[in-house]
Specification:
The chain has 18 helices and twelve strands. By secondary structure, it is of the alpha/beta class. The longest helix is centred in the N-terminal third of the chain and has 18 residues. The chain has a six-stranded parallel β-sheet, sandwiched between helices. Strands 9-8-7-10-11-12 form a six-stranded parallel β-sheet, sandwiched between helices. The protein has two domains: 212 residues, 3-Layer(aba) Sandwich (Rossmann fold), CATH 3.40.50; 206 residues, 3-Layer(aba) Sandwich (Rossmann fold). Strand 8, helix 12 and strand 9 form a beta-alpha-beta unit. It starts with a helix and ends with a helix.
């Protein structure tokens, strides 16, 4: 980014407000990545939206099987069209508190901004800001620009925010699908930009040669160094029984496995925490605040050369864009997807050749059961989808380790044509827009 553009983002007359919804950790992770991508953060604020409606719906749709099926149904076809319109109306009716937060925040500032840049990483908040954008501009006598970052490669209609100025998507596929929806509905068309998915600048840094070799050695069956495994528990606390059994089974098979588990302390996770804290091979990180979890996640990656991460195919899937020689570049094992966005994220990775196709993944699982060498080029892969049951998943991981497939994957420096500089390119595009 040229110096002139940097100065545009640093101007005191510009106030940048990042907003995220406490509906899962993904939106906060992306917000955090974009925030730390600014060279000067004196005129930037992260605002935690107080409306708990999104959190409630997120947890219901994640853990309750019947409600999950209903939510997945309304994410497709004609049902999605109806749901989008109704949900947008609901969001538009719940903007009073959000507007008060913004107005109060700006009125308390010593320097009154001339331009307010709202960065939203959740479609719910984006629609709410779209509703009150002009009201804020008129009341505070400033220019308001709304920027939306799509946090999954999922062209769900709710990500189309007509009042937005710019909408960023992780792929041309999602951009095109959203544009088609907007045109068909006669909606105002924002500027659409495709940039690589925003990954934390902490995770995109290169490892030292020694640290990278440490990561490689962990997946070498002839070495004895501990195998560092990251398991971030989702904000909705999904799959807790699966992770308890998987960790126990993996450690029984190979005592080199050491697990770093990050979890938020809630009523839903209390029994999980009590169980895991007793196990000597578990490094448990428990926090009460989402932002603490996000910070600690990056801190663990700074201190440890994590070789494997076992996670939902949510926003964490996009770490597959990183090379194994970057801080955030372990081998990724994905649990079963929940919700259309997670299926879409897996499809993104398949299109990019970062995980096996569905047929190839089945071939890997069959080869593991038969204990034979698979007919697949593992060196180009960054991740694999796990079998659904924990005992099968543990056997699958151990087989990939024993057969040197994981070692082949971690040694590969083939990044194809992929780019992990999404944060930098996001700000380049925003600065271009502000420059007019």
């Amino acid at each position: 980014m040229v110096n002139d553009k940097k100065r545009i983002l640093d101007q005191k007359s510009l106030l940048i407000i990042f907003t995220y919804a406490p509906a899962g950790l993904g939106h906060l992770r992306v917000t955090d990545a974009l925030y730390h991508g600014l060279s000067n953060r004196e005129n930037a604020i992260i605002l935690d939206a107080q409306d708990q409606t999104l959190t409630y719906f997120h947890r219901l749709s994640s853990v309750h099987p019947l409600i999950r099926r209903i939510f997945e149904w309304v994410q497709q076809g004609a049902a999605e069209e109806i749901f989008t319109k109704l949900y947008r109306l609901l969001l538009h009716s719940r903007t009073k508190r959000l507007k008060e937060q913004i107005v109060d925040l700006i009125n308390k500032r010593k320097d009154h901004p001339k331009t307010l840049l709202l960065i939203s990483t959740h479609f719910g908040l984006a629609h709410q800001f779209g509703k009150i954008k002009l009201k804020i501009a008129a009341e505070l006598k400033l220019k308001v620009i709304l920027v939306v970052q799509v946090t999954d490669d999922s062209p769900q209609k709710l990500w189309y925010v007509p009042e937005a100025d710019i909408i960023f998507t992780p792929s041309s596929y999602t951009k095109q699908k959203l544009l088609e929806y907007g045109k068909a509905g006669g909606l105002r068309e924002p500027v659409f930009k495709v940039v690589p998915y925003p990954i934390s600048p902490v995770l995109t840094k290169d490892l030292t040669a020694q640290d990278y070799q440490n990561r490689v050695d962990q997946l070498n069956t002839e070495k004895t160094s501990p195998i560092q495994v990251m398991i971030p528990i989702s904000g909705a606390a999904v799959g807790l029984d699966f992770f308890i059994k998987l960790c126990q089974l993996l450690y029984t098979k190979n005592q080199r496995f050491q697990f770093h588990i990050l979890v938020k302390k809630t009523l839903y996770t209390e029994m999980f925490v009590d169980k895991m804290i007793e196990l000597p091979y578990i490094n448990l990180h428990v926090f009460s605040e989402d932002r603490q979890l996000v910070d600690q996640y990056e801190e663990v990656y700074r201190k440890e050369q994590i070789a494997i991460e076992i996670t939902k195919p949510s926003e964490q899937a996009f770490k597959a864009l990183l090379s194994p020689a970057q801080v955030g570049g372990p081998i990724l094992f994905f649990t079963q997807p929940i919700g259309r966005q997670e299926y879409d994220n897996l499809n993104f990775l398949r299109r990019k050749g970062l995980i096996p196709s569905k047929e190839q993944n089945l071939e890997l699982v069959r080869a593991a059961k038969a204990n034979v060498q698979p007919k697949i080029e593992a060196g180009v892969l960054r991740g694999v989808q796990l079998p659904q049951k924990p005992i099968q998943a543990a056997e699958f991981i151990e087989w990939m380790m024993r057969g040197k497939i994981l070692e082949t994957m971690i040694k590969s420096q083939n990044k194809n044509n992929l780019d992990s500089s999404g944060v930098e390119k996001f700000w380049e595009e925003v600065a271009d827009y502000l420059a007019g």
